Amino acid sequence: MITLKGEHIYLRALEPEDLEFVHDVENNEAIWELSNTQNPFSKYIIKQYIENAHKDIYEVKQLRLVISSYANVALGMIDLFDFDFKNKRAGVGILIKESKNRGKGYGEDALKVLIKYSFSHLNLHQLYCNISEDNKASIKLFEKQGFKQVGLKKDWNYNNGIFKDEHLFQLIKK
């Protein structure tokens, strides 16, 4: 599918072979703060999730795609969540799994592809994301793609004994 191809990556649907990859990502406590996860996920639950990932975004209100290199290496995941057909909007989440692969443009490429797909194929009017105040890399990534900060949620997330502010960013289709 040409639509989901970027310069360095392509976005693809989840496959049964992604079980270990998704299990590793979802159970990495270092990134639980990003996804507000508090409990580990079993392989059984993740396998069921992957088996149902083919369901239509209009039915399940989300779409999770694997960010893959052209050498077919899974680098991360990008999601549309809280898909709202009536109001033509969805939230965006993105993660590059390994720190060694961050800062190489994969996330930027994936976000560009997802934005184009969301506006042209899903006919969305806007995308939004929520980013912790200390996640400077994500703030930079989304701002570079035209997202504007439209709100600040004070003391929004509690992690390791500290409350952190969360920024709300929005991109409206031109």
UniProtKB/TrEMBL annotation:
PROSITE patterns, alphabetized: GNAT (PS51186)
Signal peptide positions (record): none
Keyword terms, alphabetized: Transferase
Domain N-acetyltransferase as annotated: residue spans: 9-174
UniProt GO MF annotations: acyltransferase activity, transferring groups other than amino-acyl groups
Xref: SUPFAM superfamilies: Acyl-CoA N-acyltransferases (Nat)
Keyword Nucleotide-binding: no
PANTHER family: GNAT-FAMILY ACETYLTRANSFERASE, SPERMIDINE N(1)-ACETYLTRANSFERASE
Protein name (Swiss-Prot/TrEMBL): GNAT family N-acetyltransferase
Organism of origin: Seonamhaeicola marinus
